[in-house]
Design brief:
233 residues; alpha/beta; six-stranded mixed β-sheet; 31% helix
Length: 233
């Protein structure tokens, strides 16, 4: 069972109620600064056959997003290439219920193992999938503390360029690479506990504040100079 999932979706809107075009889920493990893809937990759902049902169910389409997609490569050839490039089966659900069931099946073990994490780039994907599940009366299969944001890692290591931008599987793989690179960098920078600088107290730099017991049994702070600021050994 993978310890991590990367998820990426393509939509016709940017709101949580967006019509979904495709969903990619990639299970992966991290070990010794490298990652391994779990092919048994990797899939793509091509949701284009369900667009009319999604709209009838109240999901939304944005004119701005439609115009933006008009400048991109067609999604169909991109999804079909997944079979050859990554040897991944592309599911084509014929109903909105099928989309939801596929999603829950792929992520069924998130609640059984609280250490498993679900990743996406920003909160865009997660918010839309939560809205999809909740409006269809289905449980969200992850806890709030299992969600991780790849975008936060931009402060640590730059994003890895997707080999096929806005292809959900290619984006997932690029984002997994960034997660792995950031964790490698973090481990390399980690210091043993005994070599870390001593924490300063809230009372101000230049003093530490050991506690002593008074005659009445109360603890009170006693200020003395902090050798780290005076040059004393």
């Amino acid at each position: 069972m993978p310890r991590h999932y990367m998820i990426d979706i393509e939509t016709w809107d940017t709101a949580p109620s967006a019509v979904i075009r495709a969903i990619a889920i990639v299970g992966f493990d991290l070990k010794d600064g490298h990652y391994a893809i779990d092919a048994t937990c990797t899939s793509i759902a091509d949701c284009r056959r369900t667009v009319d049902q999604q709209i009838q169910a109240g999901r939304t389409v944005s004119a701005e997003t439609v115009a933006w997609w008009a400048t991109r490569a067609p999604l169909g050839p991109m999804l079909n290439s997944s079979r050859d490039v990554a040897n991944v089966e592309v599911f084509e659900p014929h109903s909105l219920t099928g989309v939801v069931e596929n999603l829950l099946e792929d992520l069924h073990d998130l609640h059984t193992d609280p250490t498993t994490c679900i990743w996406s780039r920003g909160h865009f994907d997660i918010a839309i999938l939560e809205d999809l599940l909740q409006t269809n009366g289905r449980p969200v299969p992850w806890r709030h503390n299992q969600v991780r944001d790849v975008r936060t890692l931009d402060e640590i290591t730059p994003p890895i360029e997707s080999q096929m931008p806005h292809h959900p599987l290619a984006d997932c793989l690029a984002q997994i690479g960034q997660v792995c690179a950031a964790l490698r960098l973090a481990r390399a920078d980690a210091q043993p506990e005994e070599t870390r600088p001593q924490r300063r107290t809230v009372f101000g730099a230049g003093f530490n504040q050991p506690l002593r017991r008074t005659a009445g049994g109360k603890a009170e702070a006693t200020a003395r100079e902090d050798p780290s600021t005076t040059g004393a050994e």
